[in-house]
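User: I'm curious whether this sequence folds into something compact or stays loose and floppy. Could you predict its structure so I can see for myself?
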Amino acid sequence: MPEVLRLKGWMRLRQGRFEEAETELRGAIASAREQCAKSWELRSAATLAALLVRTGRRDEARDLLTPVDKVIGHSVHERLPPHAQWPALHYDLPELQLPAGGPEAALGELAECVEALLARRKFVIMLGGEHSIAAPAVLAHARRLGSRSLSVLQLDAHADLRAEDQGTPYAHACTMYRVHEHVHLVPVGIRSLSREERDRLHTGHIQPIYGHELENHTWIDRAVGALGPDVYVTIDVDYFDPAVVPATGTPEPGGGTWHPTIQLLERVFRERHVVGCDVVELAPIPGLVHPNVLAAKLVYKLIGFHAAAREHHTEPQSLG
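Assistant: Here's the prediction. I'll summarize afterward.
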């Protein structure tokens, strides 16, 4: 099966057993083609491309990926994050299979995985799914910093400060509540919140930049100025105006647009030490490609900004 061969190949790659990894990955690609499993063909090709780049065979990596991209065009973004586009910059890990014992067990295991990557000095960009996955990642980074304060730049339509939602404290509407006592929150783009959340903003001395304030570009200066030296960036794609990104579970009228958001992120990476990121809550709509392309491009930008920051500053982590 292509997924098994791909996982074996990825494991061999991480162990430095490059010849074995290449054999497994080429087998995964062949198996995927036989089964017309385009998604697994792409995943395997992306991992093989990472191996080829790592072993100095960049031209082979480009040749490997180009025909795949031509065959399916922009539809690649509907099938998986476009990791095939940046093999020279990062390695993508296989999708994490979380335990079925409930959200507490699943998020606990996610926290362990993030902590293991941080222990190996990796820069983690996590892709979701539910925004609830951000909380264990944020807390893992906060623990890693020790006595240093962590700021969280939260790009979001919702405050996500509910103590409980639909009977659980692990819902996506509770994500920032679960971290707000441990970090300095800087929410941007907020345009939907409950009375409970409004009161929590007040008592917690959290000063959001609301959605309607994005009309004036001075909000970028405010957001950057509110951040401390160490920053985690969490991006719920419903932060964007649904005219730009309709493919999300809880869209809200108004919101962010592309160019000002990219200006903000570029400044944050340049002027602060960004320790990690996540991009969450994309819910692809069949046949509607542009929200997927935006989310993919957004991750691509995050990787690029991190790489640029590494060139100009000495940072304690590396992109892995």
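Summary: The two ends are 27 Å apart (CA to CA). Residues 198 and 207 are 10 Å apart (CA to CA).
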